[in-house]
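hey can u run this one w/ adenosine-5'-triphosphate bound, need the structure tokens asap thx
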Amino acid sequence: MASETPLRVVGLEKRFGRIHALRGVSFEVGVGEVFGLIGPNGAGKTTTLRIIATLLKPDAGDAQIYGHSVTKEPEAVKRLISYLPEEAGVYKNITGMDFLRFTAEIYASSRSEAEKMVELGARLSGLGARLYEPASTYSKGMKRRLLLARTLMVRPRLALLDEPTAGLDVYHAVEVRKAIKRYVSETGAAVLLSSHNMLEVEYLCSRVAFMNEGIIVDSGSPDEMKSKYSASNLEEAFIQAVGPQGGLA
Ligand code: ATP
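ok here u go:
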């Protein structure tokens, strides 16, 4: 049933053989909210995002996107989301502009909508004239910006971004964060992202969840988390909440 809540995750469980990757993950993301999943390597962030993106089936639990279940209504969910994977590639032999055009052809229902999408994608990418060169000539950071542009230009009502600024230099990371913020304020869409960068999370996220070993240890706004753990920054709050070793213990 349709709902106004962009994302409601309830009791997600996932095992990979003997690895218990998710042990009952629950949280909600509200309208216009950027929600950050923070946690050490192996905490379960990507697994959570992939389940919400309908690419992986949970063993138990469910996630609902505007009321549509990822397990029972994956087609309806796919129309509402767009997913930027942690490790995604671009087709190397085509130009960035053609990559954006192909995407628009798949998602848009009219020529004018496709043109608007490509225009937005080109702006979000910040690649300027380089968009007309083959993607094989792009740096790692340029490819990442192209992929982020592709993810947001289809105007998803919920964007799922796995480490959106991974591999970007400080200047381009700042541009990408601004683009995400602008996208949310212009469209009222919601964003769920994972990140290892606490500065990024503080800048972007209205709420965060600390994840470790397949569970959400605590969640709240960055300010709430800092005051709760008497920490001067989010990194300190995370270590207070999870313990010094986290998943490495
Ligand atoms: P990182 O910060 O390193 O990206 P993460 O929090 O995204 O980590 P996940 O990728 O969700 O963590 O992995 C959670 C656990 O599940 C890890 O122990 C990982 O090795 C395991 N895992 C994930 N995918 C698979 C798979 N396809 N097969 C086997 N194990 C997997």
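DSSP finds nine helices and ten strands in the chain. anyway lmk if its weird
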